[in-house]
Specification:
Helix content of chain A: 10-25%
CATH architecture of chain B: 3-Layer(aba) Sandwich
CATH topology of chain B: Rossmann fold
CATH superfamily of chain B: NADH:ubiquinone oxidoreductase-like, 20kDa subunit
Structural class of chain A: alpha+beta
Order of helices and strands of chain B: EHHEEEHEHHEEH
Bound molecules: iron/sulfur cluster, FE2/S2 (inorganic) cluster
Number of helices of chain A: 7
CATH class of chain B: Alpha Beta
Distance between the termini of chain B: 38 Å
Structural class of chain B: alpha/beta
Radius of gyration of chain B: 18 Å
Largest interface: A-B, 29 and 29 residues
Largest sheet of chain A: 5 strands, mixed
Oligomer: heterodimer
Number of helices of chain B: 6
Strand content of chain A: 15-25%
Number of strands of chain A: 10
Number of domains of chain B: 1
CATH class of the largest domain in chain A: Alpha Beta
Strand order of the largest sheet of chain B: 2-1-3-5-7
Distance between the termini of chain A: 27 Å
Helix content of chain B: 25-40%
CATH architecture of the largest domain in chain A: 2-Layer Sandwich
Strand content of chain B: 15-25%
């Protein structure tokens, strides 16, 4: 029943189901559009802007844009790549990212984007603004120094009866992620591990789990983020 | 042609980056053929004796002496390279940037597990001979101009080797995925 649409990414002919968002549609064609806040199967937030592409000449976020027939998409021109790199650098200087000491290092999506874009140093000054750590929950702790406010946790981590365990408190510059300690205490170990994996960075961490995977075997030690997608379709 | 001259220093770092430089193994013999060392902990030359081509900086700036040395390097080296996370973004020493400095000193000299009860007069080091702590730890490029950056904690030996060879020969620097890491 699903209708197929034809579109082009960087001149390459692509085909996907109508209505699918552009990130997933590109994925089906072996093309990686970098993302950070996007989570497959969860309502898009469009907040991080990493997935910026040019559609028919205009900047749009791929994760919030349904693919349609005849779309002309630019994904890897130099100016788009540079724009994404600037966003990654902004995230690095606005949080407190001490990768050498971070439990998520090697498996962190923000860091992996830094690697993919060969970020050697951010071009902006570091803010060094202290953020609070909340370690009161029994299974999880949250280190807001590393939070990129992608709201993946808010959108996707729920109790069985649909209650949110994480929520945003405050707005704009003061926005921060809060955790409901009572609900979090009822999580199983598996749910807590899944919560940690949902967070793209090292902000939500399962207690007593840090540095679990040895260096060399972590997610992005050997291959750039997105290379699994690029290798999935052989032309 | 005379060999390019290299100087190195460790500011607010742990010497790990220098250890990683030594981790190039037997290529160290090629390195001595390629370059001459001037001021550096490697040969223990304490002061610059001539203008250098490449200055390699490990560590960020946590006190007035770090700033002094860094500025001295900028004056005496044509090219400066920030080597490692501490030089690039402050690194682990910069974790104190989120704690008021008074609290840091109290923890170190009064309340820490190894000092509590052993410093009844509450003495904190405060001699004019001692460098003064900066309000926070600064990345090197926020103090002087830095020309190149080699991330890692420590930077992989191959990254340091590739960079040195590129700088000395003028060839393009190789940055393979596996050697550019932030940890
Ligand atoms: S969250 Fe990612 S980028 Fe931030 S310190 Fe941890 S590993 Fe580095
Ligand atoms: S805690 Fe993690 S998942 Fe939640 S908003 Fe912050 S970075 Fe995103
Ligand atoms: S992934 Fe599209 S805006 Fe974040």
């Amino acid at each position: 029943m699903s209708d197929k649409v034809k579109f082009k990414i960087d001149g390459k002919e692509c085909e996907a189901d109508q209505g699918l968002n552009l990130v997933e549609a590109a994925k089906q064609n072996g093309i990686y559009i970098p993302t950070l806040c996007h989570l497959e199967g969860v309502k898009a937030a469009g907040s991080c802007r990493i997935c910026n592409v040019k559609i028919n000449g205009r900047f749009m976020t791929a994760c919030t844009t349904p693919v349609s027939d005849g779309m002309e998409v630019e994904n890897s021109t130099e100016d788009i790549k540079e724009l994404r790199k600037i966003i990654v650098e902004t995230l690095f200087v606005s949080g407190n990212h001490y990768c050498p000491a971070c439990e998520k290092s090697g498996s962190c999506e923000l860091q992996a984007l830094g690697y993919r874009f060969t970020m050697l140093v951010p071009r902006f000054p570091y803010a060094f603004e202290p953020k609070e750590v909340d370690a009161k929950s029994t299974k999880l702790y949250i280190d807001r120094n590393r939070c990129v406010l992608c709201k993946r946790c808010v959108r996707s981590i729920k109790t069985k009866d649909g209650k949110s365990i994480f929520a945003v408190k405050g707005r704009g510059h003061n926005a921060m992620i809060n955790i409901d300690h009572e609900l979090a205490a009822q999580m199983t170990d598996e749910e807590a591990t899944a919560a940690m994996d949902t967070c793209p960075v090292g902000s939500i961490l399962k207690k007593e789990r840090g540095y679990f995977t040895p260096i060399g075997r972590r997610k992005y030690d050997k291959k750039p983020i997105g290379s699994d997608i690029e290798e999935s379709v052989t032309i | 042609m005379s060999k390019p001259i290299v100087a190195t220093t460790s500011l607010a770092g742990c010497f790990g980056c220098h250890m990683s430089l030594l981790d190039i193994d037997e290529r160290i013999l090629d390195l001595i053929e390629l370059v001459e060392f001037n001021k550096s902990p490697v040969d223990d030359i304490k002061e610059f004796t001539k203008m250098c081509d490449i200055g390699i900086i490990e560590g960020g700036c946590c006190n007035s002496e770090n700033v002094h040395v860094l500025k001295d390097f900028r004056k005496n080296c044509k090219i400066l390279v920030s080597l490692g996370e501490c030089a690039i973004m402050g690194g682990l020493p910069a974790m104190r940037n989120n704690i008021p400095i008074e609290e840091c000193l109290q923890e170190a000299y009064l309340n820490g597990p190894s000092t509590k009860g052993h410093n009844p007069d509450g003495i904190m080091p405060n001699d004019e001979e001692l460098p003064i702590l900066l309000n926070k730890v600064y990345p090197c490029h926020e103090v002087v101009k830095i020309d190149y950056y080699l991330p890692g904690c420590p930077p992989r030996a191959d990254l340091i080797w590739n960079a040195l060879v590129a700088l000395v020969t003028g060839d393009e620097m190789k940055l393979p995925y596996e050697v550019v890491k932030f940890d």
